């Protein structure tokens, strides 16, 4: 039985976060929406900045056997009171060898709890297609599709649509 711990990620987790992103992208770049070469070009300081963004922004990690295996994050797109009722769910991914164990659901659920604690009314996200596992997970949590962006990303000469989904809390 694996020991599982969930906690908020911070600047000190940037290397583990980046390493997990690279594993996920190497397995299949479509869910991440960028190529492995693009992922490898991202500076570590960018990850440190993302993981230390001011509250209420937050990223949550699921650690299994002491290693970061899954994560999910929330970002507020601006600080104006007129938009503080909504947040963007991003950075949701699970290490390939740890999928279908509920770790992604745990991370996303924790992020949604954080949204509720911060008086968020609506959470939006984008899934690059095909990614039926992610669409199924989000739908099971109550997310509804609200639009499709044709050719949202081009990876290796292949275009992939972006499915926009939303959840009213």
Short description:
With about 170 residues, this protein is of the alpha+beta class. It contains six helices and seven strands.
Question: How would you characterize the overall build of this protein?
Answer:
- With 169 residues, the chain is α+β, with helices and mostly antiparallel strands.
- It has a single domain (4-168), classed as Aminopeptidase, CATH 3.40.630.
- 33% of the residues lie in helices and 36% in strands.
- It has helices spanning 14-27, 29-32, 36-40, 44-51, 103-117, 132-140, and strands at residues 4-8, 58-64, 67-75, 86-94, 122-128, 144-155, 158-168.
- Helix 1 (14-27) crosses helix 4.
- 31% of the residues are buried.
Task: Give the SSE layout.
Layout: E1 4-8, H1 14-27, H2 29-32, H3 36-40, H4 44-51, E2 58-64, E3 67-75, E4 86-94, H5 103-117, E5 122-128, H6 132-140, E6 144-155, E7 158-168
Parallel strand pairs: 4-5
Antiparallel strand pairs: 1-2, 2-3, 3-4, 5-7, 6-7
CATH topology term: Aminopeptidase
Spatial shape = globular
Return the CATH class.
Alpha Beta
- Tell me the span between the first and last alpha carbons: 33 Å
How much of the sequence is in beta strands?
35-45%
In DSSP terms (H or I, runs of 4 or more residues), the helix count works out at 6
- Taking Cα atoms only, what radius of gyration do you get, to the nearest Å? 15 Å
CATH superfamily placement:
Gcn5-related N-acetyltransferase (GNAT)
Helix content: 25-40%
| Major sheet | 7 strands, mixed
Main-sheet strand order equals 1-2-3-4-5-7-6
Overall pLDDT? 94
Q: Indicate the low-confidence ranges by residue numbers.
A: none
Number of domains: 1
């Amino acid at each position: 039985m694996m020991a599982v711990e969930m906690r908020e990620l911070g600047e000190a987790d940037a290397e583990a976060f980046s390493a997990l992103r690279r594993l996920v992208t190497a397995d299949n770049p479509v869910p991440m929406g960028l190529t492995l070469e693009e992922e490898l070009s991202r500076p570590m300081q960018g990850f440190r900045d993302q993981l230390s963004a001011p509250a209420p922004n937050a990223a949550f990690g699921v650690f299994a056997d002491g290693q970061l295996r899954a994560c999910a994050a929330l970002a507020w797109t601006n600080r104006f009171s007129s938009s503080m009722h909504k947040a963007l769910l991003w950075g949701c991914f699970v290490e390939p060898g740890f999928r279908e164990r509920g770790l992604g659901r745990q991370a996303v659920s924790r992020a949604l709890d954080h949204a509720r604690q911060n008086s968020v009314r609506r959470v939006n996200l984008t899934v690059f297609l095909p990614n039926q596992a992610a669409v199924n997970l989000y739908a099971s949590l109550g997310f509804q599709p609200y639009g499709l962006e044709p050719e949202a990303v081009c990876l290796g000469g292949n275009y992939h649509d972006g499915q926009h989904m939303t959840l009213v809390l």
